[in-house]
Hints:
With 151 residues, the chain is α+β, with helices and mostly antiparallel strands. It has two domains: 4-72, K homology (KH) domain (GMP Synthetase, Chain A, domain 3, 2-Layer Sandwich); 82-147, SH3 type barrels, CATH 2.30.30.100. Helices cover 21% and strands 35% of the residues. It contains three helices and eight strands; from the N terminus they run H-E-E-H-E-H-E-E-E-E-E. It has a five-stranded antiparallel beta sheet with strand order 7-6-5-4-8. Strands 1-2-3 form a three-stranded mixed beta sheet, with helices on one face. A hairpin with a 3-residue loop joins strand 4 and strand 5. Helix 1 (4-15) packs across helix 2. The N and C termini lie far apart (46 Å). The relative contact order is 0.14. The model has no long low-confidence stretch (mean pLDDT 91).
Amino acid sequence: MINKEQVSTLCEEALANSDRFLVEVKVKPNNVIEVYIDSDTAVNIDHCAELSRFINEKMDRDVEDYELSVFSWGLSGALKMDRQLQKYVGKDVEVKTKETGKMQGKLVSFDVERVEFVPAPKKATKKKSAEEPANLFFERNKVEIKPAIIF
């Protein structure tokens, strides 16, 4: 069976001199490999194809057959790494916790232990004026953060 660490090492080697970075490698049964990458700027299909070619050149299908797919992390995945979170400081995100459910707002800051977030202000109604929300703090390991598109 193909080793996840082997694939991760190849990815790190291929991405070393770029602004792209490895987020996750999954090796599923029957050697189905999924590689997820992100970037400080953007990931396009050419970046994914380039990494796929690099991995295919370094691995030997004659020794062990596999299926390889390389994906951009995208907007639907939770932000897992500091490097991903840093891109979204000051930007719209969606946070989800067991206690609060899903909320949209802006990521203010983060560190190893916690995340600071300001919820989107509630709209004013005829009976109530809009309230400026207070910043919320969450334990980092108990919150899921995703990019948000707010219209």
